[in-house]
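Researcher: Go.
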Amino acid sequence: MKRARFAEVVWIIGIALSLIALFTIVPLAIALNGLAISTAIFALIWVGIAKKNLSKGSTLRVFSTYLFLAIIFLLFSSIFQLIIQILPVSFLTQVSYILLAIAYLLI
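Model: Structure:
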């Protein structure tokens, strides 16, 4: 039991130090976009797991499908924003806004 607690504390410290290193080494806008991308991927995994456990044809399953699609559009928007931060390409900003609008419509 104590060994498991120690491992959890080590994981939390490792994650905290990784985030501190990320935000001090990389410019803030790029770090935040990277964090948004990883959060969106994590959300996709959890929505996919939840959707598999819901009964077919249920309203919640339909809503989870829309949520899954909305998170995908948010993920692509974040990827485009990251590309814009690294390589300033003007037309990608418009594409990113269109993806955001579609995500909000799906929600």
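Model: DSSP finds four helices and no strands in the chain.
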